[in-house]
What we know:
By secondary structure, the protein is of the alpha+beta class. The protein is built from 9 helices and 14 strands. The chain has a 5-stranded mixed beta barrel. Strands 9-10-11-12 form a 4-stranded antiparallel sheet, with no helix packed on it. A 3-stranded mixed sheet has the order 6-7-8, sandwiched between helices. A hairpin with a 5-residue loop joins strand 6 and strand 7 (213-219). Helix 3 packs across helix 4. Mean pLDDT is 78; it is low at 1-8, 20-32, 65-69 and 74-113.
Amino acid sequence: MTRYADHDMTEEELRHLDDEGADVERKDSRPSQSLPWPLYRLAIEHSHETFLAVYDGPVPQPPELSPAVPVPEVPDLTAPPVAEAAGSAEGRDAPESPPESPAAQVSGTPAESAEPEAPAPAPRILAVGSYVLVSTRYGRDLCRVMGLIRNPGYTSPDEIARIERPATPSDLERKAQNAEKERHAFTVCQDRIAARRLPMKLVSSHYLLEEPKVLFFFTADSRVDFRELVKDLVSVFKMRIELRQIGVRDEARVTGGCGVCGRVLCCHGVTDKLVPVSIKMAKDQNLSLNSMKISGPCGRLLCCLAYEFGFYREARRSIPPEGARFPWDGVVFRVTEINVPAGKVRISGEDGRVLVVDASRFSQAEGRWALKNE
């Protein structure tokens, strides 16, 4: 049983920090077809989940940018007429004709004008921070536009939702009214839970915009029989009630908070999906296996451990592992320490020499490691 020097906990004792399915290696594949554009990232505000969506309908124009009566431009009389310039290029005499107005000269037909055709106008883009109506996994609801996505990475077309329409002023007014109802529903549900002494913790409540349904999110250590609670809530709200049990990481994503780095929790403000994190990720990055240092407010491993895990995994393929032995300079050396970010490897020889060499000097052939001379 391995025990670490910086604390009195074994790796087996730290397994409670792992996520379910964290040891299963994920295999991402690129989509077989190109993704549509413009592609937006949307946020579900009540659960702080994000996803990709596409919209090809008309975009409402802000009131201050509404089209007005076009103001005629003052023609530039110093420029040569376009029709005359085109006629002289043909090398033939054109019969004299009465002078046309400058506006008519500039806006001639494509055959008579030397100017190239104007490109088609670019599609209007939904404004960042605006709201749109989308069918989410909870129901049809308003989502906030976070911005355009030009490099979505490994994304399947099946994961892309479709925006139905931008939000109207009446939708935004109803959203504000629902926010007041949600605070009241949260208090009522808390009272009912306390009255029935259910072992559950209420996290949040949410009214859907397009459906007569109230969502309640809660956490619990085990499965809870809340059938009687649903009946109580239905008698109060007179609509559909849906109770969803979420995990501790989902609770941290909904409630938010501050991490050990001093910034907003990644699950609340950065990460779109909760990636499983395991102790193996901390070991591969040579981090201290101290549960107080590598776990977040939710009691699980920090989400940021998964950010650089792919880099470490790829870099270690070209570096011998700790404990590997190889001959060099007539002496057998052993790898004692690896610094992946710096690209350095500490080795110790049987003659007492301790060297720090670049990781790029190592090569592997037929399963054996060798150190190249400088």
